[in-house]
Please model this.
Amino acid sequence: MTQTSPAITLEKLRRAIRLIDEPLIELTPQSLTYLRSYPALLAASRTLASTHDSGDLLLQLSAMCYGWMPRVARVNARHVDKASAALACALESDVLIDTAQMQDLANSLHSVVGTSKLLHFLRPQLYPIWDSKVALFWAMPFKKSLQAHMSNVGNYHRYIKDIEALIASPDFSAFYNDFDQAYSRRLDRLKIAPYSLSPVRAVEAAAFELSGGDYDDD
Model:
């Protein structure tokens, strides 16, 4: 029997706004770096996408995104052609690439998580980032290990569809505005120039906060 994830409500995601507005929470240096560098990486991705062919784009985005994770990029040369074609489709289309194309990217990068980050920086309006904290928050039932669960492109695709459903709901606009404003307030408190998030990124960022975020223990 196919397992599906339970609905994640906007009411539940709204709890993240209170966390983001909490002035006493200290973020780790890694999280601060993420926040500061995020808009720069989006801009760099746009520039790379407009000036390089798909083969170079795969390699350059991989190096950039894995530095942001941070991890060491491992691009499998045997899958580069198919992965580059999938990346080109993602860049040119306003709809999601299919799971087979996502798998081509994952085969090249040895990672669905890495694939999600490449796709997000290329098309932040369509593709959310997929990581262990978000996967656990989404509470998708799985019998195997978390790593096996996260390595399944079908789970990532279902996660995207869940976010699409949330964004299409009539109350999403109010949540998005409130969350985006709270996020800007946090950035301002941290002396980081405020920037707006895409609706997809806002949902994912709220899920990350509710899963524990990235805070100092001190």
Notes: The chain has one domain: 10-210. The radius of gyration is 17 Å. Confidence is low (pLDDT under 50) at residues 1-6.
